[in-house]
Specification:
six-stranded antiparallel β-sheet; 9 strands; 118 residues; alpha+beta; 4 helices; three-stranded antiparallel β-sheet; 21% helix; OB fold (Dihydrolipoamide Acetyltransferase, E2P)
C-alpha cells in the first residue's frame, strides 16, 4: 500500500490501482455522509481533484495519487458512504488504470512517521 500526504491510500497491482482514504482521514472527517466520485472513463491526474467527500464537519477534496483513467467506482459506497468510517482500508473509492504514479507516495512506515509529526 502506498499513501499520499493527503491521506489517500493506493493499492497497485500491475497497472490497476484501488484508491481510498486512510483511517486518519476518516477520523478527521467524522461521519461521512456523501461521496462525489468520477465516472468510468474519466481521466485522473496525480495531485489533482478526482472527487470529494462530505462529512458532518466539512467537504474535502480527494486528490489522485496517480495519473490514469477510472475503470471502476465502488457503487456500494455511493449508497452507504458511512462504510468508510467502519473500514477505510476495505472501502476503496475508485479503481484506475494507472499510467504514472506520483513519486511523493510513502510506504506505510513512512506514512506513520509523517502522521506522527502532524
Amino acid at each position: 500500500m502506498l499513501i499520499s500526504k493527503d491521506h489517500i491510500w493506493m493499492e497497485l497491482q500491475e497497472n490497476t490501482a484501488r484508491i481510498g482514504i486512510t483511517d486518519y482521514a476518516q477520523e478527521q472527517l467524522g461521519n461521512i455522509l456523501f461521496l462525489n466520485l468520477p465516472e468510468i472513463g474519466e481521466p485522473v491526474k496525480a495531485g489533482e481533484k478526482f472527487g470529494d467527500v462530505e462529512s458532518i464537519k466539512t467537504v474535502t477534496d480527494l486528490l489522485s495519487p496517480a495519473d490514469g483513467v477510472v475503470i471502476g467506482v465502488n457503487q456500494s459506497l455511493m449508497d452507504m458512504p458511512e462504510a468508510i468510517n467502519e473500514n477505510p482500508y476495505e472501502s476503496w473509492l475508485i479503481e484506475i488504470r494507472a499510467d504514472k504514479v506520483s513519486q511523493s507516495l510513502m510506504d506505510e512506515k513512512a506514512y506513520r512517521q509523517y502522521k506522527a509529526a502532524l
